[in-house]
Amino acid sequence: MEGIWETLTRQCANLEAGAALETPVSERRFRVVRSADDRIIIRFDDSEEERPLWREQFEVFVDGLDAGQIAVDDLQPGVEPYAVVLTLADEFTVVNDLIARDPDAAVAGESPFLVPAAEARTRSERVHDDALLLATLLERLEDADEPDELETDPLTDLYVLSSDVQRGADRLRKSAREPLLERLGPEQELHGRYGTVRRTVRERRRPKDDETVLDALDSHGIPREWVLGVDAEKLDVVLSVTDLEEDAVYDVEEDVYVQKTGVDEDEKYSRLQGIADRIDELEGAEGEALENELDRIEDRLEEALSAD
């Protein structure tokens, strides 16, 4: 076990910054925080819970594998992280949904449960990163307010990043909605640093089932034909089995729009790393000046908000 343990701790230390591992049954992502002589500390993304994986328990798991293969689907929640981390070694891997000791198939540092850093980012991290990329692009573009003046490549990037920020921010907004509703009482407002929210009630109506509606009409002497209309689904069936032309029953308008068909997440992540590296390089007077400027902006925002 000595050689296996050394390999495990080394591969854990060499994991790409931001990379995660995911348990195959419970589908929980976790990160390796640090290693010690007798344990590997992991932290789960969904709960921020830190948990030690003990060396002696790895030994028990390896002894079990020496006695035979273990089906991935049979892994218990408490055992899953051990199995996942073990597949980073150069002797263990997954073959036909079985965790097995197979040095010929295993590759040190690789695992079917390894999630690259670009994919392992949380929803809020993706929104942050996309917004940072968009802000960087806007700083670089002199004609962002005049899209007609932009070359095709930056114009495409502007559309894609704006779309990603909008979609990600909307998902993040919806995830914040329920907790806010729990804290908002009737006619109550909550004030944040950048704005205010209040509880709003809107009525959305939808017809009851046909039988109930028609019975209600009959009871009030209302002719049924007043509410009966054309069923578009049935009309489409008629169009498909007869010689009736579509334009005879439909007003067709063509809506031309731009559709985002792909996003290069690897390129985005690579660009982010470049931005992060440049920020790290801002040391000394230049870095201190940037930090002071950010503090001044923050102070001005606070003053403006408190003055309202």
TrEMBL record:
It comes from the Archaea. Pfam families: DUF7983. InterPro entries: DUF7983. This is DUF2800 domain-containing protein. It comes from Halopiger xanaduensis (strain DSM 18323 / JCM 14033 / SH-6).
